[in-house]
Amino acid sequence: MEYLEKYTTSTPHPAEAGLPTLSKLGNPTVPDNLDIKKVAAAWIDELGKAAAQTNVDGVLALLVDSDFKTGILDDDHIPSASGNVIPVYWRDFLSLTWDFRTFEGTPAIQNFLQARLQIAKISNLQLGPVSLDRPFPDLVWIQLFFTFETEVGIASGIARLVPITISASQPKSLADDLNTGDVTWRAHLVFTNLEDLKGFPENLGVKRNGLPNHGKWEEQRRRENAYEDRDPTVLIIGGGQSGLDVAARLKALGVDALIVEKNKRIGDNWRLRYDALCLHDTVWFDHMPYLPFPSTWPVYTPAKKLANWLESYVDALELNVWTSTTILDAKQDQKSSVWSARVKKEDGSERTLKVKHIVMAFGLKGGTAYVPKYPGMDQFAGTMLHSTEHNKAQDHLGKKVVVIGAGTSAHDICVDYVDNGIDVTMFQRSSTYVISALKGLRLLLDRLYSENGPPTDVADRLNASFPNLMMAGMAHRGAQGIAEVDRDTLEGLNRVGFKLNMGFKDAGLYLLASRTASGYYLDVGGSQYVIDGKIKLKSDSQIKEFTETGIRFENGGDLEADVIIFCTGFTDPGSTMRSIFGDKIAEDVGETFGLNKEGETKGLYKQLKYKGLYSMMGNLSMCRFYSKHVALQIKAMEERIFDGQKYSK
């Protein structure tokens, strides 16, 4: 199949530019008797010495020396696929920069260390688990975990040391134990991550409330949630998984937070969507902070079951929530930086809350439903809906339905129609990346997130330790393997005219989801419906106009419809931000979703351009991991240990 074969050649692909392949390293030989713990311990020892002396050159000597930049995330840039330059990365999450940064190349890392090494005051480095990993035949590294302290924090790190053939350009290390035979070991990648703040541990385990409570708990909870005599420190707008996770993290750190949710019940953001909705991620990927799903939980969670879980999560963790509450507007005092947020409660009463921090947790659905405009739409005599307005297939028994879109929602809705005996056609506007949930996605996730995988917190650190600039290459190779296990499905889809792609820069699902959160389908059976013709497919022309009875296409064809459903996603969440904060703040903040050229999110999980304003969104996995980072920043500001200077160069 031409579509698939062109992605599975042995020629290096441009997405692989960020990989430290053995050919780039001089084709070194890794000794069979290599003492990886000895090498790792020597590297940590040298890093500790250099950090204690704030010796930037000493730290750089432990890293690969390279000025190479992939440019892989530039839309119009294609990196070299055949160059022999070894890339080097340092990714930091808050521990050294109070930001989320990826530094690529020695010059960028040098500038970062010169600016922050002395301020951070790294100390007490301790080596953790060490392993020799070979994810692909031409990739090998010593992976080591470590912990360390900064002036204000307790942090973790992961480094990957690659073997470089000793030469004039890559001489031996000054530390003898980093040289083995004709090989010297240098870090191709370092990841550093803030875990906790010194003196302010989470109230977990032995830190939990140890006092008995006889007959007082119910009234205490009522008063805590009512805010009759106080304002919260943090206002969280939105009670989906992103809002709940941040609230749980803040509560563990002793920060008073209130969630306002416009729906009647927590979980309604899942409960009130179409009946056929089900998570396509696996349960091990989706655990929430402090309260993982029980071992009896299904691998794929039905939306309504998740909705009930979110509601029970609030009760179990005693989070403060006002449901049926709408935020009307929010303004910031320029002198004090305090926010005045006006909310309207279920009984119609209004309350102005004075808060130091606001977390926007309204997710991608914070944007308005996007419906593309076509001539003649006002002439269509049938029913026209966005997927957010759709409930269940039985609402349209005996009707002809056209679903515009070919992503996850479109497939779920089409399958539901077929299962209820309803005539449905999927109109595919552009190509889609398809990966099977049962085989392909498991191949992608199971190494970290599975029944036999590492603990979730360890898996999260490992996952985060790969910068997206490097992950493009790993993901491209993974996508080839996934395409092979999904070959029968992909060939079947190609045969019936379903347009396919291999994701952004041919790197599969990961970067595509991170950049746009659209354009893919995690196949849980819908693809076979398309292949078998149960879901009719229209993909050979674009829409010209709507008619009274349906859709007319540019190639002259007509498609009759009684019901048309747009599965076309959402506008930017900035539209909701604009309605709450006004035009100026929305324009100043700009985009909060997607990736910048470093591969980091444009505006999520960190303070935006206004003091005390944050944006929080993502799937359950992202919210679980990054919610702690949001909470740590807020706690650091409340305790006046946030140094106020993000490294922005």
Automatic annotation (TrEMBL):
<dbReference type="InterPro" id="IPR036188">
    <property type="entry name" value="FAD/NAD-bd_sf"/>
</dbReference>
<dbReference type="InterPro" id="IPR020946">
    <property type="entry name" value="Flavin_mOase-like"/>
</dbReference>
<dbReference type="GO" id="GO:0050660">
    <property type="term" value="F:flavin adenine dinucleotide binding"/>
</dbReference>
<dbReference type="InterPro" id="IPR050982">
    <property type="entry name" value="Auxin_biosynth/cation_transpt"/>
</dbReference>
<protein>
    <recommendedName>
        <fullName>Flavin-containing monooxygenase</fullName>
    </recommendedName>
</protein>
<dbReference type="Pfam" id="PF00743">
    <property type="entry name" value="FMO-like"/>
</dbReference>
<keyword id="KW-0274">FAD</keyword>
<keyword id="KW-0285">Flavoprotein</keyword>
<dbReference type="GO" id="GO:0004499">
    <property type="term" value="F:N,N-dimethylaniline monooxygenase activity"/>
</dbReference>
<dbReference type="GO" id="GO:0050661">
    <property type="term" value="F:NADP binding"/>
</dbReference>
<feature type="region of interest" description="Disordered">
    <location>
        <begin position="1"/>
        <end position="24"/>
    </location>
</feature>
<keyword id="KW-0560">Oxidoreductase</keyword>
